[in-house]
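Moderator note: this is an archived Q&A kept for reference. The question asked for a predicted structure of one protein chain; the sequence and the answer are reproduced below.
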Amino acid sequence: MEKHKVAVDDLFTAITPHLESMQNPNDVHFNTAGYEFLGQCVADAITDALQ
């Protein structure tokens, strides 16, 4: 991706340290705080890309 200058927003790396508090127990889905966190990460990446 770097070679072709494709932007990557690594949400896995961002959320991994917070899984205990942001992922539903025994589930693959996130709770409200998790989705808000991921949404903010995406919004920040888009903002950065537009600057």
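Archived answer notes: The chain has a mean pLDDT of 96.
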